[in-house]
Structure formats: structure tokens, C-alpha cells
Specification:
Aminopeptidase; 14 strands; 7-stranded mixed beta sheet; alpha+beta; single chain
């Protein structure tokens, strides 16, 4: 059956789905239970499940694709005000289709104004997904890692160039040309994807089609090496914008050189830029090179 992730819905759990939920949880966790405790003992697991479902039934949902049950989700608000993600279990034939990730990201968005907690078996590779989405370690048990995604204010700083630096740039840049469109699109999306994903700003790849290139590209300048884009920056009046460095060339000082070059080419009485608070490396770069935060604005 061909199912798109955006057609999935959650419906409240009812007891007629009890056996389905037990089955899907068994399919998801049997391997880890055997690895941790030596065996899946049906009688023990049934007893545990009965207690579990009695505890979560009011905060549990069946994942539906049309009229088909394809998974189970539960989560709840904790006494400390945090939100706890419990289980996201998908039947095997519907895994690897982005369904679990979609549900997870929806819950992150719904609860973005509070801390979000979860735990995961130590050997479960899904922990890598949680790390990419901004979860960090928050303790551990013998068999589980505990993780938390802290409440995150989605804000950006307006920074103004207040303290001129004497250093000059050592690079030469050229105006953007449409022959670099595909390369620019790839690098631009790579540079902003992680931030947009962790802040849950969709689309995670900002440049979706050619309409992005219809205006404003005459303000963009490229740093090239053998026809490969090292980095880019836009100068929009008094504003320095979209300063990006190809991930292949990051950590080599090109960000600073692009900034210095832009400062030398802004033709205005003052110079400003905007940067997400999340992007601490960029904030540090701008602060070390004469910029000061003058305003905090929500994203």
C-alpha cells in the first residue's frame, strides 16, 4: 500500500485496539528486551503491558492510514510542566516512510514552549534522529538513555557594526551568475538545514524551486575556487545577509573573510545584519569583529 506521510492521522486509543497495540509494541521492542534482559517472557510482558496501557490510555493514540491501523503513539504532560514523548511504534511494512519523523516533529511543534523529555534503549539507532532534532543527554538508566529538548525561544538578533576592525579581507569575490544556480541552491540548503530542522521551521530546505532566484540575486557575491563555491554573501543596502560557507570549507577562516569583504563593500552610514540566536558560532564571529546586538526579535 502506498501511503504518504502527510495523510497520516492520530485517533484516540480505545480498548478494542489493545491487542493491536501489544503486537506493534512487541514488534518494536522485543529485540531490545531480549538483548537487555535475556528473553521475552510472554507472561511477564503481558502483565507489564496491562499496567502500561491502563496508565497511558487517556494520552494514547492509534496511528491511522486511511482505515488501516499502522502504529501507536503516546505522550503526556508531566508534573514538572514538561512534555514526555512515550512511544512511536510503526508496523514494519510502514517503516522508513517518514511517518514516525512526521509525528515526532508535530509533537515538537505542539510543545515548543516547554521542555520535552523521552528515553530510548541505548542500542536503538533512533537516538541519532533525536540528537539531530536538538535533544541532549539528560541521564541514563542501566538500559536507557534519557534525553531532553529544552524549551527554545525562536529568536534572532539584529546586530550593528559598532566597533570597526582594522583587518582587511584577503579574498576576491565575483557577482553571482545563474550558471552557479544548482551549486548555490545545494550549498544554501545545506548551510541552513540543521538550524531550520532544530528550530522546526519548515521547509527545512528553504530553496524549493527556481522562484527563489527570480529577484535579489544581483546583490549576491560568490567566493570561488576552480569554479567551486567556497562561500557567498549578499549586500542589501545597509544589511549584510546570507553569509554562508560551503560545509566542505568551514572551519578555515572563510566566514571571517567573507564578513570583512562585505564590510568593505557596504555603501551606507551604518551596517547591520540578522542572525538566529541558535547560530552561536555566527554570533561569536560577528561579535569578535565589531558587531553588537541591538535588538532581539521573534522568528
Amino acid at each position: 500500500m502506498h501511503i504518504m506521510a502527510d495523510t497520516i492521522r492520530l485517533v484516540p486509543y480505545t480498548d478494542d485496539s489493545c491487542e493491536f497495540v501489544y503486537g506493534v509494541k512487541k514488534e518494536a521492542y522485543k529485540k531490545y528486551v531480549e538483548e537487555c534482559w535475556g528473553a521475552w517472557i510472554e507472561e511477564v510482558q503481558r502483565e507489564y503491558f496491562e499496567k502500561f496501557i491502563a496508565d497511558v490510555r487517556n494520552n494514547a493514540f492509534i496511528i491511522m492510514a486511511g482505515e488501516n491501523k499502522i502504529g501507536f503513539y503516546n505522550g503526556k504532560e508531566l508534573d514538572n510542566g514538561s512534555y514526555e514523548i512515550g512511544n512511536i511504534c510503526i508496523v514494519p511494512e510502514f517503516r522508513c516512510r517518514g511517518i514516525g519523523s512526521k509525528i515526532l516533529k508535530e509533537k515538537l511543534e505542539e510543545n515548543k514552549d516547554r521542555d520535552i523529555e523521552l528515553q530510548v534503549f541505548k542500542q536503538n539507532p533512533v537516538g541519532k534522529l533525536y540528537e539531530r532534532l536538538g535533544f541532549v543527554p539528560n541521564g541514563e538508566t542501566e538500559f536507557h538513555y534519557k534525553m531532553i529538548k529544552r524549551k527554545q525561544m525562536r529568536v534572532a538578533f539584529t546586530m550593528e557594526y559598532k566597533y570597526p576592525v582594522a583587518e582587511r579581507s584577503s579574498i576576491e569575490m565575483v557577482p553571482y551568475s545563474s550558471k552557479y544556480q544548482d551549486k548555490y541552491k545545494r550549498i544554501y540548503n545545506e548551510c541552513y538545514h540543521e538550524m531550520r530542522e532544530q528550530l522546526n521551521i519548515e521547509p527545512y530546505d528553504f530553496i524549493q524551486d527556481d522562484t527563489f532566484f527570480s529577484t535579489g540575486m544581483d546583490l549576491v557575491y560568490l567566493l570561488l575556487e576552480n569554479d567551486e563555491i567556497i562561500g557567498s554573501v549578499a549586500i542589501k543596502g545597509e544589511e549584510i545577509d546570507d553569509l554562508i560557507v560551503n560545509p566542505k570549507f568551514q572551519g578555515k577562516g572563510y566566514g571571517k573573510q567573507l564578513l570583512l569583504w562585505a564590510l568593505e563593500h557596504v555603501n551606507a552610514e551604518r551596517v547591520i545584519l540578522h542572525v538566529a540566536e541558535w547560530n552561536k558560532r555566527a554570533v561569536k564571529l560577528y561579535t569578535k569583529n565589531g558587531f553588537e546586538i541591538i535588538e532581539t526579535i521573534p522568528i
